[in-house]
Every structure is written in structure tokens, then in C-alpha cells.
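Design a sequence for this backbone.
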């Protein structure tokens, strides 16, 4: 079962799914974050891991579009509407993917649409201890997306990080000191790649590419960003089910 992101409306729902899945090991379940399987993200991950930008210090991401249709699920609170759940979840996921660990605390600022009662503008800070990730997402801004991965000796810019086109090459930019290199990736469909990898796990009864535990961890951070925005404080990311605040 390949589930559209996010895996639930909150971490409790995600944990309930995880527990149910443990009782049915023959069932394959994965959250469909298709971006991770695109070659541009695999390349960026390899470059960071390989030290090509030095020590990773910060990630900056932006994702927005403009949608004020009251009948659209993205603008319906009861069904999980809002910028953070719809597109902010990408920025959280990619930060954890590139840093290769979980943040220790988060801070969020959210602006809600008065009619829809969903967040239309959210900014978050994820503190990983040895680096940070900042992001802004919005459902009521001009359409734009970009990700910058910045280290002590270099930088990676992903031009179309999320809605990678299936009919033309994607480009990422690698800067080291004053030199900037354009890296062109082959034409591919990230949804097809994701579907093929998941299908192989089903056919050969192997582990899915991204375990369900990853989806639960992402939802926990989303929950705590909402808590942070509500209280106006930093919120710790504990290993227990109840969030601590600081």
C-alpha cells in the first residue's frame, strides 16, 4: 500500500498505522515521498555524504502555490488541509533525509486563513544541533520552489526540488568557492521510479525503500511545529510520545 503523504493527520494516526502494520508483516506500506527517488536528490545526498560541500551547516527550502478554492481538499481543515501538511512536509522530510538524523528541537510560525481555518503560510526552523534547516511554505503565494544545501566549503542548489518534470532534464547547481558547476540529470519520472521500487519490494517480499517509521518521525515533527506556533516557543523532539517544550 503506497500512501499519499502525509501518512496521517497527526503522529497518533501514524503510530496507529505502524502498530497495525506490525501485525501484518506480509503487507507492504510506505509513505509516497516521490522526490527522494529522483536522481537529483540521490546525487545531492551522495555529494553531502561524500563531503563535497564540507560540513553541512544549513538547508533552506521554499515551496509555494496560490489556491483559494474552498472546495479543494487543501483548503478543508477536517481533511488535513493547509500548507504545512500539504507541502511543508516535504521540507521536513528532505531536511531529515539530507542531515541523516532527527532534529532536536523546532520552532514554527503559522498564519491561518480566516475563512478556511487552515494555515496558508508557515515558516519552520529545525535545529539538528550541528546545523539547521529553515523553510517556508504557503498555499497563498506566487508559485515557487527551491532548495539550497549549504556547507562550510560548498553549496548545492536544487532548481526544481519537488515537482520535477518528467519530460525534461532537471538541473542542480554545485558551487565550491567561486566556481559554479551545472549538473544535468537524465530525464525520468520520479513517480515511476518510486512505483517500481515499491513494486519490487512487493514482488520479492523485501523491505520497502523507506520504512513506515520514517513517516511517523516526520509526523511527530509536524505536530511539534504546530505546537510551537501555537505557544510561540521552541519545542523539543523527544523520543517519547508526549512532546516537551522549552
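Sequence:
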Amino acid at each position: 500500500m503506497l500512501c499519499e503523504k502525509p501518512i496521517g493527520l497527526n503522529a497518533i494516526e501514524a503510530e496507529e498505522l505502524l502498530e497495525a502494520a506490525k501485525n501484518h508483516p506480509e503487507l507492504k506500506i510506505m509513505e509516497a515521498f516521490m522526490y527522494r527517488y529522483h536522481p537529483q536528490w540521490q546525487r545531492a545526498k551522495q555529494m553531502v555524504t561524500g563531503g563535497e560541500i564540507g560540513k553541512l551547516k544549513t538547508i533552506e527550502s521554499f515551496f509555494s502555490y496560490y489556491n483559494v478554492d474552498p472546495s479543494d481538499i487543501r483548503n478543508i481543515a477536517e481533511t488535513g488541509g493547509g500548507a504545512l501538511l500539504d507541502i511543508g512536509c516535504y521540507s521536513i522530510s528532505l531536511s531529515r533525509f539530507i542531515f541523516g538524523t532527527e532534529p532536536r528541537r523546532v520552532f514554527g510560525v503559522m498564519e491561518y486563513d480566516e475563512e478556511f481555518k487552515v494555515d496558508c503560510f508557515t515558516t519552520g526552523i529545525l535545529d539538528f544541533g550541528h546545523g539547521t534547516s529553515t523553510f517556508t511554505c504557503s498555499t497563498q503565494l506566487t508559485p515557487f520552489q527551491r532548495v539550497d544545501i549549504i556547507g562550510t566549503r560548498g553549496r548545492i542548489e536544487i532548481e526544481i526540488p519537488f515537482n520535477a518534470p518528467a519530460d525534461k532534464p532537471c538541473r542542480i547547481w554545485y558551487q565550491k568557492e567561486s566556481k559554479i558547476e551545472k549538473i544535468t540529470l537524465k530525464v525520468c519520472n520520479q513517480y515511476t521510479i518510486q512505483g517500481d521500487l515499491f513494486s519490487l519490494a512487493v514482488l520479492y517480499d523485501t523491505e520497502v525503500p523507506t520504512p513506515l517509521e520514517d513517516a511517523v518521525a516526520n509526523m511527530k515533527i509536524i505536530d511539534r511545529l504546530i505546537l510551537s506556533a501555537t505557544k510561540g516557543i521552541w519545542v523539543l523532539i523527544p523520543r517519547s510520545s508526549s512532546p516537551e517544550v522549552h
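Residues 212-231 form the longest helix (20 residues).
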